């Protein structure tokens, strides 16, 4: 199968040196890309700015900065995709204006006006056809109600519900505690696993769902 995986944060620039972003390190997405490649699948990895080496296995890597760059890269590669896994922590908002040169402190407006970024999954859903779409719901506190809402709202086949308020789960750690919730009725609370193990479970679910191993 052909996997398209998004990873990492996006950066929304205020000027060339300042940006809005989030705590995502890309580890979960890189683990999904690595697990899919190790299972013999073709993988394209579209990643925001992260400090990670591309995993082995012939993964095609596309580096992007902003949410709009990420959307454009994913749209370009979607036609040759069977399974999309959106692990990226896409910034929901971007500054309305990005300065071309570094803003002087004295000249900066203390209020930054924002405008919404596109919802990448919702945009790509218009061209979903027979593809399998997997999303993540990173929440502080019980992630299940929000995950169920997003599964339906974003037209996903699977959502990975993730409590990121725990110290052993979520951003910038190597382990994760997730529940897989599928549109097909899948409800699988997984124990504390490494991100690699969580990635293998996601890849296995996709293989089973599509009835194929490679
Ligand atoms: O941010 P939110 O919790 O809604 O993200 C849930 C899912 O939607 C994730 O898979 C994320 O990659 C995706 N997302 C997106 N476009 C956005 C924000 C999030 O595709 N602008």
Describe this structure in words.
With 214 residues, the chain is an alpha/beta fold. It has a single domain, classed as 3-Layer(aba) Sandwich (Rossmann fold). It is 26% helix and 28% strand. The strands form 4 sheets. The protein has an 8-stranded mixed beta sheet with strand order 5-4-1-6-9-10-12-13, with helices on both faces. β2 (12-15) and β3 (18-20) form a beta hairpin. α1 (27-38) packs across α5 (195-210). The mean pLDDT is 94. Cytidine-5'-monophosphate is lined by residues 67, 86, 88, 90, 92, 117, 119-121, 135-138, 150, 154.
- Uncertain stretches: none
Helix/strand order: EEEHEEHEEEHEHEEEEEH
Strand content: 25-35%
Mind telling me the CATH superfamily name?
CoaB-like
Average of per-residue pLDDT values = 94
CATH class: Alpha Beta
> What compounds are bound to the protein?
cytidine-5'-monophosphate
Distance between the termini: 5 Å
Helix content: 25-40%
Sheet with most strands: strand arrangement: 5-4-1-6-9-10-12-13
Overall spatial form: globular
Rg from alpha-carbon coordinates: 17 Å
**CATH overall fold name:** Rossmann fold
Would you identify the CATH architecture?
3-Layer(aba) Sandwich
**Structural class based on helices, strands and sheet pairing:** alpha/beta
Number of strands: 14
Number of helices: 5
Give a quick account of the main beta sheet: strands, pairing sense, barrel closure. Answer: 8 strands, mixed
Give the number of domains. 1
């Amino acid at each position: 199968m052909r996997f398209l995986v998004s990873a990492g944060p996006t950066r929304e620039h205020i000027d060339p040196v300042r940006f809005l972003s989030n705590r995502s390190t890309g580890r979960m997405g890189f683990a999904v890309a690595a697990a899919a490649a190790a299972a013999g699948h073709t993988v394209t990895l579209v990643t925001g700015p992260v400090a990670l080496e591309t995993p082995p296995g012939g993964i095609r890597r596309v580096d992007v900065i902003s949410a709009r760059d990420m959307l454009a890269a994913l749209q370009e590669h979607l036609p040759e995709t069977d399974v999309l896994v959106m692990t990226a922590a896409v910034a929901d908002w971007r500054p309305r204006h990005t300065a071309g040169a570094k803003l002087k402190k004295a000249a900066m407006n203390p209020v930054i006006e924002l405008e919404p970024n596109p919802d990448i999954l919702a945009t790509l859903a218009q061209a979903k056809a027979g593809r399998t779409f997997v999303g993540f719901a990173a929440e502080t506190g019980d992630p299940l109600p929000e995950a169920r809402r997003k599964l339906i709202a974003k037209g996903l086949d699977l959502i990975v519900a993730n409590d990121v308020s725990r110290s052993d789960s979520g951003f910038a750690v190597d382990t994760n505690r997730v529940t897989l919730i599928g549109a097909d009725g899948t409800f699988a609370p997984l124990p504390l696993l490494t991100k690699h193990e969580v990635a293998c479970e996601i890849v296995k679910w996709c293989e089973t769902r599509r009835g194929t191993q490679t």
